[in-house]
Amino acid sequence: MKRLLSFCLCLLLISCFEDKDDNLDLSNLATPTFRFTQNWDGTDVSIDDLITTQFTNAHGETLNISNLKYLISKIVFENADGDIFILNGYQLVDLSDPSTSLFSPEGSLPEGLYTLKFVYGFNEMDNIDGAYPELNSASWNWPQMLGGGYHFLQMDGMFNVDTTIATPYNYHHGTAKLSDTEFEQNFVNFEFTNSIFISHNTEIEIQFNLAELFKNPNLWDLNQYSSSLMPNYDAQKMMQQNAATAFSIGQVTN
Amino acid sequence: MKTFYKLLLLGFIILGCSNDSSEEYVDIPAGPTPSTLNIPQIFENQLIDPIIPADNPQTEEGIALGKKLFFDPILSLDFSQACASCHMPQNSFTDINTFSTGVNGDLGIRNSMPLFNLAWNFDEHFFWDGRSFGLEHQASLPVEDPTEMANTWETVVDRLNNHPEYPELFQAAFGNAPISRDLATKALGQFERTLISANSKFDNYFLGTASLTPQEQNGLAVFMDEDRGDCFHCHGNPNNPLWTDNAFHNNALDSTFSDNGLGDITGDPADNGKFKTPSLRNLAYTAPYMHDGRFATLDEVINHYSEGLQNSPTVDPLMKTVNQGGVQLTEQDKADLKAFLLSLSDPSFLNNPDFIP
Questions:
Q1: Nearest CA in chain B to A132
Q2: Which of A128, A132, A122, A182 has the alpha carbon at shortest distance from A153?
């Protein structure tokens, strides 16, 4: 009897889908690919620069980078009619692993002109403590005592490397702790105004200018803010403000 | 498209006409019996899937063979040592020595690593210096290491072929393929992947079935506090119950290196002094600590991070207080941190009958 019911149900489902399926045109749907690149005021920063290359920040400290990872999520395209297309997924970019510089989000959208939005880090809805096994496995978590969720950025290295007392820095960005019971969201929502034509095989470069983290609008003094910055509310909010000008759209290829 | 639906319809008709006679079929043994890795709930909830190579699926026969090989001194030159000689079940599959003694009486240069949760080593780099990629490759090396078993695989394969039991066990696990180093290490890898530890007091606390003492809770806070222990950046956290990042760091043990660790493998001086982060699970059973077993107690380990850091050109920036010698924990925080660390030990792992002969 169960088989008979299943059979009838299947026939019913088939009859419901048949016409639509036959007429659906999937040919103009596209899923863009993102390429994440890093630079220091226009000079490319790649895996080859880890530890070996020295950079000078706006405040004048010379530093190197031994670890750089950052999280991008919630990619949204909007067309001229105001139609919104949300592509799910997130990407943890790791400078030491070039394969992470390429990202194809989940979902697709019709070919056409769009503006682009994304979130640097996770927004409040997505920043759920322990919710993403892939990020847990990468130890990307942000302590619960600081609001939980995940890091948005880790940048580690040494500064004052041109002196005899090189000192570690840990520029780690995530949720800001105001008090033991109050936490503030700290992500950045990027909304770009330039239109991008999305077609099959579109690749969009997202540029991350690391120098911006140290200068705009807050001139960053590593001698004052070098480590134990995660529980430091002021440091966290300055990181959020400085990150707001650090990302831009680079080359778009079709 | 319509043809597709016709075929689908035909399929349903055939299904509808058949009766429940599947019980009448006789199963013909077609090879080893697939075995599913017993993934603990906490790993299932929090972590990505374990690594099981496509060319070495877990089977009951393969695991049984691997277990027999693991405990069998047949692998060593003089039949005196098995894998288990330096990886003892009662010590979370390590031993109690600073360095292990090989069949020729030679000491190794590094502390024997405990063995558990190896399928969750996502980057698949094994040994303190990461010189081996993949668990099967790792399992192959001690046999020919002159400071360990000092044998050759050619000899081992010959012994296995002439053994009264192994040929049949290999056939059951791998069919008619000839006994080889490749198959032996595959079997060892299968057994080692079953060595799963996820039943500590803290695991049960995380799952809501146990409580932490106030001291253990403060110890966790010290562990997770960037202003105090800041252990979590390398050693996992409640959401990463592996309690290691399985990566390589210079944790400020020395200002100069007698052992370059990862640097000797990559050839990059920037990697000198880097060693794999060990898991903090089962510390109650795995003393001594560090790659060279220099610390006999957990107190010594904690004192190192608190006051004993040594600067060097490759020190990890996460050793942020290296210029001050360490994170300067209070005596109370040290004691609490130790209590928390011990809550990560899993006594049931030591007595699991699946892991002992």
A1: B46
A2: A122
Q: Are A185 and A177 in contact (CB under 8 A)?
A: no
Does the domain spanning B48-196 belong to CATH 3.40.50.300?
A: no
Domain range list for chain B = 48-196, 201-349
CATH superfamily of the B201-349 domain: Cytochrome c-like domain (1.10.760.10)
Q: Give the DSSP H/E element, type plus range, for residue A59.
A: none
Fold agreement (B48-196, B201-349)? yes
Whether residues A22 and B1 touch (CB distance < 8 A) is answered with: yes
Rounded to whole angstroms, how far apart are CA atoms A131 and A148?
11
Rg (CA), chain B: 24
Which of A12, A139, A163, A172 is most worth mutating to test chain B (most B CB atoms within 10 A of its CB)?
A139
ipTM: 0.90
Regions of chain A where pLDDT drops below 70: 1-27
Walking along chain B (357 residues) 10 residues at a time, the average pLDDT comes out as 42 43 54 96 98 98 98 98 97 96 94 98 98 98 97 98 98 97 98 98 98 98 97 98 98 98 97 98 98 98 98 97 97 98 98 93
State the Cα–Cα distance between residues A122 and A109, nearest whole angstrom.
22
- To the nearest whole percent, how much of chain A has pLDDT over 70? 89
DSSP structure string for B21-57: -GGGPPPPP-SSPB------HHHHHHSPPP---TTS-
The sign of the dihedral angle between the CA atoms of B160, B163, B166, B167 is: positive
So what's the pLDDT on residue B30? Answer: 72
Query: Quick check: A165 contacting B, CB < 8 Å?
Result: yes
Joined tokens for residue B166: 């192994």
Of A4, A145, A231, the CB nearest to B16: A4
Q: Is A145 on the interface with B (CB under 8 A)?
A: yes
Which chain B residues are Cβ-neighbours of A129 within 8 angstroms? 239
Residue B209: strand, helix, or coil: coil
